[in-house]
């Protein structure tokens, strides 16, 4: 088992190094450094989105496509309150509060009605919820040039020639921090134990008396808070366009798939790797046009690798 | 933005409408003051309005003008029945919208169209059905390189070129990096002519293309810089352009490069969205008259919008363009025999014969001509984002490129040069 893990890590590191060398070959080191750091910054956003999805999936079995839309609603609220002159920290808290309410609202009142349906039905239902939120947000805030900034945008450090703002460092730090915090929460608290039990077998968990609704509501709450924070980061670091933020959920899913919807640390590594490779592809005149599909190719390769030696049947993996 | 534009229009109206309230009444078509009651003339319009963009301003303004015309005698007593469809950025919906208007409703022409989508899908249909489209918000090559579509707006190609030409002549640009959308009939098509222009002047140029939904605008900016550009041309919708400028602000790149953009950045909400950091550092090409220029048509456009459009309808460049297309259409129809107004072939023939129409909203002369290409609007203004607004830094000037050789030949043939 340990040998297999070590082999996986060696293979991953080797492949990453080979890919980076291939894409960076013959390019000035400073330029490669710029693209590498830029890719890490975007990758941390993919990872952040993916982590929020995996946390919820592990506890409830719901792959939440509405995470992006919930984040978009949050950051648009923060922007609007900022325009009205509300004290900035309050606007950030309001973004997280809006995301929390939307997430818990869905988790408490809609998700239980679908609890016994197939995972794909649950996932499609969240897609419907995402489109409702997006429609409502687009109705409230028409297509217009806007910008959302945090005070931390003005402070930065130089890494490999690229100025990295504190906001980007926060996004990166939080993606790592959330992985550690959630891991601790799941392993050291009773609610975490309940969540793990639910993830393993919902039926048996219900039979042994685990408070399913309470546990799931907490999971939806945690997911909402992460979505609100991620929305603030997306609005600041990508752009303040609800549609773009809503559909950032797609590369985030690719990151989540890298962790096979289970391992938060693999989601983090997968997201960062996707960001770096996507960014470095810009250096290749022949490959730069495939940049948008890079995260999905990486996710597909990861799935194929972990699928090796297994046989799929209609009843699942044998 | 709507609030800002409404304020701007109110200000403009205030400047020009001081003498008396009576003078604020818009002038439309025959201007009889009596409603047209004859048999309606069916005219269509298609816009794209769904996430991520709303291009309905052009058809809103065309509708306002047609309503005003209908209230003022119509086309020799016949009102215009203006039917608007939304393609929702969906190719299938775009084809259905054209079919509904052209085949089912038997429209004699389409006016005020604004979309990224429908022109690419329907250009052949318009040719086969022999119907002319007097579009207003075009952004793709099919709009300007088709026999049956003519637009009052410039689209990205001339507007990019206008910005590049200004930068080369006034800002000392030697190497332009065009950041555009990775859509073949938009980004590469419209960037290439600016690059060719720079090469013709002994300079250089390159393009960095972005996927419309791409999260990582930083890479495109870095690519433009890695290509050795000294000037960054932001050939993007305003939201994406703002994101690129924000990434540049993060890197503190403002003073190391010159920053230029085509018309999409001419939006009164942009200076505020960009903030103080960019004040005085971004140059924007305007394809129609900036709001502060004024003039009789500019004044009438505002009056028409205030009297016949909804308060929330935008007063922006696309609205100016929609209004212009509608006025040119009405002018051409008034020159026709009333009995021929239901005959699409004759209406098409008349529109193709349009030549020498002028307006203070547009720098050049408007014409159509019987050709496989149409780009009558190839002159504009250059503006600078300054003091939270836009200052004109160069008045009307014509853009230079060998791409326009065929257009210039047509203009000579029509006696416009």
List the keywords.
heterodimer; A: 318 residues; mainly alpha; two-stranded antiparallel ribbon; two-stranded antiparallel sheet; 13 helices; 72% helix; B: 417 residues; alpha/beta; Rossmann fold; 2 domains; seven-stranded mixed beta sheet; five-stranded parallel beta sheet; 40% helix
In which order are the strands of the major sheet of chain B placed? 11-10-12-13-14-15-16
Give the proportion of residues in helices of chain B: 25-40%
How much of the sequence lies in strands of chain B comes to 15-25%
CATH H level, superfamily name of the largest domain in chain B: Response regulator
Structure description:
- The complex is a heterodimer of chains A (318) and B (417).
- The longest helix of chain A has 32 residues, at 29-60.
- In chain A, a hairpin with a 2-residue loop joins strand 3 (312-313) and strand 4.
- The relative contact order of chain A is 0.19.
- In chain A, the strands form 2 sheets. A two-stranded antiparallel ribbon of chain A has the order 1-2. A two-stranded antiparallel sheet of chain A has the order 3-4.
- Chain A has a domain at 47-251.
- Chain A contains 13 helices and 4 strands.
- The radius of gyration of chain A is 20 Å and the shape is globular.
- By secondary structure, chain A is mainly alpha-helical.
- Chain B is an alpha/beta fold and 417 residues long.
- Chain B folds into 2 domains: 2-154 and 293-377, Rossmann fold; 156-286 and 381-413, Rossmann fold, CATH 3.40.50.2300.
- In chain B, helix 10 (270-274) links the parallel strand 13 (258-261) and strand 14.
- In chain B, helix 2 (57-70) runs parallel beside helix 12 (317-334), helix 3 (91-104) packs parallel to helix 4 (118-128) and helix 6 runs parallel beside helix 7.
- Chain B starts with a helix and ends with a helix.
- The chains are: A mainly alpha (318), B alpha/beta (417).
Summarize the structure.
The complex is a heterodimer of chains A (318) and B (417). Chain A has helices at 2-24, 29-60, 67-83, 88-109, 119-140, 166-188, 190-200, 202-207, 212-237, 242-246, 249-258, 264-280, 294-307; strands at 156-159, 162-165, 312-313, 316-317. Chain A is mainly alpha-helical and 318 residues long.
